[in-house]
Specification:
134 residues; 14% strand; three-stranded parallel β-sheet; alpha/beta
Length: 134
C-alpha cells in the first residue's frame, strides 16, 4: 500500500517498480515473477518538480489517420490521474511478457478509497531497504 500524496512521481515509480519486480525480497530471481502486489492511492496528488506539469506531454494514437492525441501532464492529472503513475511504472519494468504480468499486479486509484481492504495491505517502506547486519 502506497500513499502517493506529496511524493515525487519518478522516485515513487521506481520504488513501486522494484517492489513489483521482487527486488526487495531475498529470493529475487530476474526471470521469475517474485514481486508483490502494490496498491497506490491518491495518485491525483502526486508531486512533480520544475515545469513538468506544463512541459511533459503524453501522446497516444488511435490507429486511424489523424488520430494522434496529446495531453500535458496537468491535463492528464485532471482527466486520468491513475494513468500518470501507471505509465511511469510501466516504463521501469521489463518490455516483455514478464513485465506485463508484473504491471497487472499494480492497482492505482485517484483518491484515498480502494476496494482491497479485505487483503489488509501493509504500508510500503519508501526509503531504501536496510542492509542485513548493519
Amino acid at each position: 500500500m502506497v500513499d502517493a500524496e506529496g511524493q515525487t512521481l519518478g522516485r515513487l515509480a521506481s520504488v513501486i517498480a522494484e517492489t513489483l519486480r521482487g527486488k526487495r525480497s531475498p529470493w529475487y530471481t530476474p526471470h521469475v515473477d517474485t514481486g508483490d502486489f502494490v496498491v497506490a492511492v491518491n495518485a491525483e496528488k502526486v508531486h512533480v518538480s520544475g515545469n513538468k506539469r506544463r512541459d511533459k506531454v503524453y501522446i497516444r494514437h488511435s490507429g486511424y489517420p489523424g488520430g494522434l492525441r496529446s495531453r500535458t501532464l496537468s491535463e492528464q492529472l485532471e482527466h486520468r490521474p491513475e494513468e500518470v503513475l501507471r505509465r511511469a511504472v510501466r516504463g521501469m519494468l521489463p518490455k516483455n511478457r514478464l513485465g506485463r504480468a508484473q504491471l497487472r499486479k499494480l492497482k492505482v486509484y485517484a483518491g484515498p478509497e480502494h476496494p482491497h481492504h479485505a487483503q489488509s495491505p501493509q504500508p510500503l517502506q519508501l526509503g531504501r531497504v536496510a542492509e542485513v547486519g548493519s
